[in-house]
Amino acid sequence: MTASTLSTSVHIEDVLLLGPGPTNPTNRVMAALREPVLGHLDPDFLSLMDRCKTLLRKVFRTPNSLTFPVSGTGSSGMDLLLVNLVEGEDKIVIAVNGFFGGRLAQLSQLLGANTVRVEAPWGQPVDKDELLAAVDRHRPKLVCIVNGETSTGVYQDMSGIADAVHETGGLLLMDCVTSLATMPVEVGQWGVDVAFSCSQKGLGCPSGLSPVTIGRRALEFLDRRLTPVPSFYLNLAEVQKYIDGVDGSRLYHHTASSTLYYALLESLEEILEEGLEARWARHEKAARYLIKEVSALGLEPLVAEPDRLHALTTLIVPERLDEARIRSRLRSEHRIEVGAGLGDLAGKVWRIGLMGRNADRAVVDRFVEALRAVL
Q: Rounded distance, CA 321 to CA 340, Å?
């Protein structure tokens, strides 16, 4: 691993990032960060923005024209979608089987929505029949579901959900923060109305951008909104004047980072050069290899095979082990970061992220060798 010098007094060696995100960007993406900083209304930057929007549609697998990176981390994309779509005491059904489903419910409640939680044990997908029964019973304005639950490593099957939601007149919101560019995400085919992700996981960029996509049905809902959106920075109508422009002109809304856009464009081009299907297959192969190798150390995955995220594997930590001390030694002695459990799984699992460039057999071998030495 190489080292980087921030100043004469600060020296930081690279860390192999095998937690729930961020991941290590490729050299190509890191090189893009050195491109010249541009003003947020510079014509070259606006062209860069438009190119990113076009490629994001391909990665989301959607024709939605309103597809762009929000200036903020993944939670800002979640915030933008909910703060614009939730109005008054709207009824919202939310699938909760982990920390981030819970975060969607928490924000929904903060916005004053009438929130209905459909729960499942952490480590299992939400029962689709229970979810659709709740949709039929409550006929909500919005149904929210986490496609890739970062806290547990569960991948939620999305087939058939949008049809049921649309039959009752609602919208479907999807969190694909950990699944985008690592497993099948088919916004158009699945009928998802709005979705959000992040830049620092499957896309392999530094954190700081939250790609979102917003479909026609959602825009029609927004046109019927009766009260002001309770945010300036995340007001979609105002952001759109900058992202897409008005009468051919882009209007200032915020100072977007050209540096982060350079990195995003480079990563999107890398992804599409590899091919989405090939990239999904590479992540699956790496996850399967990880599980095979750690089984020899007495470690087993939390999630059953059909429901596993390939970008993030939760491993059950035997009670005899001091999981925090082992993670600390991996970091201090081997320069490897792995994730701890969140919420109900705190102290019980390790979360091993194999995302982007790190979805690789050699990376798994390095991790397993280090873990074996520490154990």
A: 13
